[in-house]
Amino acid sequence: MTCLKTTNWKVERAIDHFFAAGYPAAKTSINEKAGKALFDKYADKESKTIDIEGIQQISADLGFETSDIRILILAWKCECAEQGIITQAEFMKGLVALKLLILHNFSATTVDKIAAALTELNEKMGTLSEMKELYHYTFTFAKAEKGHKNLETPVAVAYWQLILGDGKVPWLDSWIEFLDECNRRVISKDTWNLLLDFCISVKPDFSNYDPEGE
């Protein structure tokens, strides 16, 4: 009815206006107010961002350790540009990506819904191939500074253990020992990406590995 009145009761124009305005989804599906209220609960009052202390608090409220892979998944879905900082825009983007703000009963107190969504997403990424997007995101996210081309080896190792550990890659410890023996100080993006490709294409027992690459 509103669309018809706006377009002087011209049906075709009313239909165009309906979809252009996003009725009814644009006005009812995104609970932006609740999302911002939740952000404000954890954000630093001066920086207007969720800093390390805020991340520690939200992790505790979610029931996760800060080293839990589900916190990394949250950063990935928020498309966080750097470690230890979540801006309001990033936080809102993450809630939308997790399909939480479309819930009419989502409120600033329902962190359990975030925990459930992150847990479900983690469980869905059952194979290394399904974790590829998260893995590639992590390299850029984990760099100490945006201008750096490489990851410091201890940082790379920590994230390898987080993403590829728990038996996903049986020889991961041997790879880490090899890097230590070689005194490898940094890990390039090529090395980071090729390791996952190797993990996906080569069986854990190396039975299909061709050292000649043929």
UniProtKB/TrEMBL annotation:
Any GO BP: protein neddylation
Coiled-coil boundaries: none
Q: Name one GO molecular function term.
A: ubiquitin-like protein binding
Q: Name one Pfam family in it.
A: Cullin_binding
Q: Where is the DCUN1 domain?
A: 30-214
**A GO CC term attached to the entry:** ubiquitin ligase complex
Q: Which domain of life is it from?
A: Eukaryota
Q: What does this protein do?
A: Neddylation of cullins play an essential role in the regulation of SCF-type complexes activity.
This protein is called what?
A: Defective in cullin neddylation protein
